[in-house]
Write a structure and sequence with these properties.
Shape: globular
Mean pLDDT: 91
Low-confidence stretches: 320-325, 474-486
Structural class: alpha/beta
Distance between the termini: 39 Å
Number of strands: 14
Strand content: 5-15%
Radius of gyration: 22 Å
Number of helices: 19
């Protein structure tokens, strides 16, 4: 298949991660009118785009206005994702991005010679209602990566990409790993992710024939899930917790408030993997062990975990399944199926969660989803550690699958961009993320410092936490950066 035969850029509204849609569904229900801003960060600042790349990127951003939910996609979501309300699906059916009003892109050349090859820093800012702008993150990141590797690093090819994904999938599956593909945001381009899914599907077929313990559980990308008939997977992102904290301006109760409204939107047992590290796992666990208000007393108790002016109360859907009566008092830790580890030391995280569940007297087997910069060796290491601790481990593998290339000329690593777009404000207040790794702190530095003091956050260093060199060397990229500055 010729990658160049495919259209440039984004051509499906579902070419995004599932959790963007689930969060948009919750926003529509509770806080549809909140105004937000987003900011772009390049954690590999020495890897700069050229004028030519930026002009292509600008053109692709404009084209996002033409993307909409097709009738076929609407029917797919209605059948495959029963947790989406009819109100939300009808909203999404009429949804349109308005990049000319909502996205501000600019380019600052390092040395302005007027040439298309001039390298420089790009600036992306998004603003508007949260409801209207939440779907920009994944397409803009994917397009930025595609622009870089289309114009700035072209010393690579698609050769063997499907086969490499097939081999990686077989290794993971034959060793018993349950994993999903999480690589949309930093993929090399659409065609690469397409090849990766083809390879993983072949590996999954081998696993089924061989009755292997491992399983391809799905992909976070809803478009590719639909295309290849595999489950769309994902629950919630840091953005939900960040937004709730900013809207309420209450970081002490933000985790619990976010959990409460999440269950209120989707019910118990649905989308039940909790993300622990937005403001540090230690702070999250204080909220996780608290008792969730029941429908009978939800408005009378815990007023501190209500969002002022929310359009609806945080009551679970009437048809949501429940394993206990309304009278039973259960903690969020009991209700949620498990947790996701996305920063800090994964081995330490396993011990922390084992100790936590044991202290809380929670006997049922819980899941840990690992999703932070994984490869085959790390998946196997974390799998064994989690299983020994009594957990069911699963893995969201991203950049290792969708942006793993070498240079054609010398065989060296073609390093992926490490780029993020994060909520920067909501309701007029700064939005921040602390995480379990200082390299992943995002947002206003004064607010980060203040919140750390308020929460009693203890800074930890992890030897593998350098965000500037997660997937590549520093020597070669350092030489490239010096060349750009000349």
């Amino acid at each position: 298949m010729d990658g160049h035969a495919l259209p440039d850029g984004i051509f499906s509204i579902l070419d995004t991660d599932l959790y963007k849609l689930t969060m948009q569904c919750a926003i529509l229900k509770y806080v549809p009118d909140v105004h937000v801003t987003y900011a772009f960060t390049n954690r590999t600042p020495h890897m700069r785009l050229s004028w030519e790349a930026f002009e292509w990127l600008e053109n692709q951003i404009e084209k996002l206005a033409n993307v909409y939910l097709s009738d076929q996609e609407y029917d797919y979501l209605k059948k495959t994702c029963p947790y989406f309300s009819e109100t939300y699906l009808l909203y999404l059916r009429s949804f349109r991005l308005q990049p000319s009003k909502q996205v501000h892109a600019s380019f600052t050349p390092l040395n302005n010679t007027g040439g298309k090859a001039d390298r420089g820093d790009i600036h992306l800012e998004i603003e508007g209602r949260w409801l209207d702008t939440i779907l920009y993150e994944i397409p803009l990141l994917a397009l930025t990566s595609e622009a870089y590797f289309k114009f700035c690093d072209r010393d690579w090819s698609y050769k063997h990409q499907e086969e490499r994904a097939y081999d990686k999938g077989r290794k993971l599956l034959s060793h018993g790993c349950i994993f999903s593909e999480f690589g949309s945001r930093r993929r090399r381009d659409y065609h690469t992710q397409d090849l990766v899914l083809q390879g993983l599907k072949r590996a999954a077929a081998d696993a089924q024939k061989g009755s292997w313990k491992g399983k391809l559980s799905g992909t976070s990308n809803v478009h590719f899930a639909m295309k290849y008939g595999i489950p769309p997977v994902g629950t919630v992102a840091h953005e939900w917790f960040m937004g709730v904290a900013s809207i309420t301006n209450d970081y002490e109760h933000a985790n619990e408030t976010a959990l409460r409204y999440w269950v209120g939107c989707f019910g118990e047992g649905t989308l039940g993997i909790a993300l622990t590290d937005t403001f540090g796992t230690a702070t999250f666990l204080k909220a996780f062990k608290r008792t969730m208000p029941t429908p009978a007393n939800s408005m009378a108790n815990d007023a501190k975990t209500l969002i002022p002016g929310a359009a609806s109360p945080p009551l679970p859907p009437m048809d949501a399944e429940s394993s206990a009566s309304d009278a039973d008092e259960r903690s969020y830790a009991q209700i949620f199926q498990g947790v996701r580890q996305d920063s800090g030391n994964p081995m330490e995280f396993v011990k922390i969660m084992r100790d936590f569940y044991d202290r809380e007297g929670i006997r049922g087997k819980k899941t840990i989803v690992f999703s932070d910069s994984l490869n085959i060796e790390l998946c196997l290491e974390y799998m064994h550690a989690a299983e020994e601790a009594g957990f069911t481990p699963t893995f969201g593998v991203g950049t290792f699958l969708t942006n793993d290339f070498t240079h054609e000329s010398d065989g060296r690593k073609s390093t992926p961009l490490n780029i993020v777009i994060k909520l920067s404000s909501a309701n007029g207040h700064p939005a921040i993320k602390i995480s379990d790794n200082i390299g992943k702190n995002t947002g206003d530095s004064d607010t980060v410092h203040k919140v750390k003091e308020t929460l009693g956050y203890v800074e930890k260093k992890w030897i593998n936490g350098d965000e500037t060199s997660r997937w590549g060397s520093s020597r070669e990229d350092g030489r490239e950066a010096k060349d750009q500055e000349r």
